[in-house]
Each structure stands twice: as structure tokens, then as C-alpha cells.
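Q: what sequence does this backbone want?
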């Protein structure tokens, strides 16, 4: 009996020691976050509608004209921790960064409601397509060429589809199947106006196709690029980096969509709800922003009164750490202590979010060029 009692006593001491040790574990060694592996459909739709704010206008319908996006990806993959949180703006250019950086969840903001609806089109097309060839076929309503496989290069895919004419009957079938998937399978409550917008957006893909430069206001508006140009874009070493560059990229994104982990929101960078709602959600789940892709939105915010100050105040509400990175595109790039104008298209720049917020709070950002000076290529 004394042996049994002694054993219990030792066990009690052991429990106390373990409890004390747990209390002494550094916060950095505790679970990083409680982000869900899957969001139920009803909860996803509540996030899309509840986190969003009133829609507003923007001067361009599409923004996918930044073929330079690929240049940053090799360095971003080295410096960005996988499994973080991705934030972005605009339509499908976000997918290439998501595929490269492998976040746990992504929030996509845009002031236009049409952009949120375009992401729902993409969501349906991803979920209904087993591979890249099916995806391209469904997105553009073209029959699938023979001879393609999971091993086909992205250039081979688009060269093959570039020879296939559009199919009006396939367009009608795809459009109805897509809306059925969103409203009947997923049970998203799309209004009649939403459905009309989806019809118009999907027709743009159909009429322009993957290989033809899109007209003004659409893909490649400034520099005559086509969807194929964007998808076959390479980094400085000639490596293709788009979300369709490999089957692995595509399948990662497809699974994120199937689990409702790409959340499109109607939100103004200078608004009062969307970014802050996402920030509150991330704080609740003890998650940290890894990357925030802003395109060139800051440039416009500095042209609109104090909108830039509102944005940086929203930026300051996000949970970040020393590695959290803001990605921007600009016609200007820092060169020492002076700015240089970039000939041709855009240059993609990186900046520490924590440093940017600190500079804003200290009054060191007063104009767009102050912000660009804090960037590096």
C-alpha cells in the first residue's frame, strides 16, 4: 500500500510539473492559429455578405494586366511562411500568388461587386473542373483539344485551346450549370441582378477567348495582353509562375475553393468594414497575415483626399509580424534615395507591412512616393 501511495504521490508531482511546464512554454511554440480547414457553405456566404460593404465604381472593369507578377514569386516563396493568410485585390491575378505561397485562407477585396461575382464564377469553374484542361474549356466555352494531359505545359495548353473555336451551345450549358452549382449545390443567395452580372461577365470570357488581346477595360487593357499571355508569364529565369503553370498549382487552388477558403468580399481599401472584419476574424483565430497584394490601388487612394490615411489605418488593424509583406505594382521604383520611372509596364515591389504601418503612425508617409520609397524589388 505504501508503494501504491508513493506512486500516486509521484504521479501528482509529475502532473504539477507538467502543468507548470505548459505555463512556461513560449507563445511562439503554441499552436499558431485556429483557422478552419473547411468553412461550411452557410458560414462562407455569411462571411461574403456580412464582411462586405457597399459597392462602388472603379475606372476599369478588370485589372489583370500585370504580367510582371511572376518576377517576385521566387523571392516571395523563400521569405513567406506557408500556411499563413493571404489578402489581395482584383480578380484572378491573386490565384498565382496563392498557388505559389500556399496560405491557409485567402480574402480578396474589391470595391466593385462585379469582382466578387467574378470570383464566384471562378469558384464554380474550379470546383466543377477535374484538371487544367477542363478548367480552360469551361472558363472559355471551348471544346477540349485532344492530346492534352496533366503533364502538358501551360504554353501547350493555351496553344491547343487557341486553335479551338468558341461553342455557343457549350456556353449556354456551362452558364446554367455554373449558376445551378452556386445556387442549388452551394445554396448561395444570388439576386436577379447578380445573375445578370454573372451572365455578362461570363460572356466576356466567351467572346474574347484565351488567346486574343482583350478590348479596352478588360484583360491586358493597357498593353494588349491576352489571358494566355498572363498565364504563360515567367520569372526572370524563364520559369512559368501562373496558377495554371502546373497541375499541382491548379489542384491546390481547386481544393481551397472546394473548402470555401478563398473568400471574395466587396470592400473599399478606405472603407469601414471589409478589411476590419477580416482583421477581426483573423485575430479571433490567432492568425497572421503573410501577404497582402494591393496592385496599384494606393496610387488612386493618394489621389482621393484622405483615402490613403483611411487605408493605412485599416492596414494597422491587421495582425502582422516582421515577415508580413505588402506587394504593390507601380510605374515607379526606388533607386537609392530617389525614385526612377519604370519604362513600359509596371514593376512589382515588396514592402514590410509592419514598417509601413510604423512609418504611417510616425507621420513619415505623406504622399505616394514616400510609400514607394519603402519598397524593394
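A:
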Amino acid at each position: 500500500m505504501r508503494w501504491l501511495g508513493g506512486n500516486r504521490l509521484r504521479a501528482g508531482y509529475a502532473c504539477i510539473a507538467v502543468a507548470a511546464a505548459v505555463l512556461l512554454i513560449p507563445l511562439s511554440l503554441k499552436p499558431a492559429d485556429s483557422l478552419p480547414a473547411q468553412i461550411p457553405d452557410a458560414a462562407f456566404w455569411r462571411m461574403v455578405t456580412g464582411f462586405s460593404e457597399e459597392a462602388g465604381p472603379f475606372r476599369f472593369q478588370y485589372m489583370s494586366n500585370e504580367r510582371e507578377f511572376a518576377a517576385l514569386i521566387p523571392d516571395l516563396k523563400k521569405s513567406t511562411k506557408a500556411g499563413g493568410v493571404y489578402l489581395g485585390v482584383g480578380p484572378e491575378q491573386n490565384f498565382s500568388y496563392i498557388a505559389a505561397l500556399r496560405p491557409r485562407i485567402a480574402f480578396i477585396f474589391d470595391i466593385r461587386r462585379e469582382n466578387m461575382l467574378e470570383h464566384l464564377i471562378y469558384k464554380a469553374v474550379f470546383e466543377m473542373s477535374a484538371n487544367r484542361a477542363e478548367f480552360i474549356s469551361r472558363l472559355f466555352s471551348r471544346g477540349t483539344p485532344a492530346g492534352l494531359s496533366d503533364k502538358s505545359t501551360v504554353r501547350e495548353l493555351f496553344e491547343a485551346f487557341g486553335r479551338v473555336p468558341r461553342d455557343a451551345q457549350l456556353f449556354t450549358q456551362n452558364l446554367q450549370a455554373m449558376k445551378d452549382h452556386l445556387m442549388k449545390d452551394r445554396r448561395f443567395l444570388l439576386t436577379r441582378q447578380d445573375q445578370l452580372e454573372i451572365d455578362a461577365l461570363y460572356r466576356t470570357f466567351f467572346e474574347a477567348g484565351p488567346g486574343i488581346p482583350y478590348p479596352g477595360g478588360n484583360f491586358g487593357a493597357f498593353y494588349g495582353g491576352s489571358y494566355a499571355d498572363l498565364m504563360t508569364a515567367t520569372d526572370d529565369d524563364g520559369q512559368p509562375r501562373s496558377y495554371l503553370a502546373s497541375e499541382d498549382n491548379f489542384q491546390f487552388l481547386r481544393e481551397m475553393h472546394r473548402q470555401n477558403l478563398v473568400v471574395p468580399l466587396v470592400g473599399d481599401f478606405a472603407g469601414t468594414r471589409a478589411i476590419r472584419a477580416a482583421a477581426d476574424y483573423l485575430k479571433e483565430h490567432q492568425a497572421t497575415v503573410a501577404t497582402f497584394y494591393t496592385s496599384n490601388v494606393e496610387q488612386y487612394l493618394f489621389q482621393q483626399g484622405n483615402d490613403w490615411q483611411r487605408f493605412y489605418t485599416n492596414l494597422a488593424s491587421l495582425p502582422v509580424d516582421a515577415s508580413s509583406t505588402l506587394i504593390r505594382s507601380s510605374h515607379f521604383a526606388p533607386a537609392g534615395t530617389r525614385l526612377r520611372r519604370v519604362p513600359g509596364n509596371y514593376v512589382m515591389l515588396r514592402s514590410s507591412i509592419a514598417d509601413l504601418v510604423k512609418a504611417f503612425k510616425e507621420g513619415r508617409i505623406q504622399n505616394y512616393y514616400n510609400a514607394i520609397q519603402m519598397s524593394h524589388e
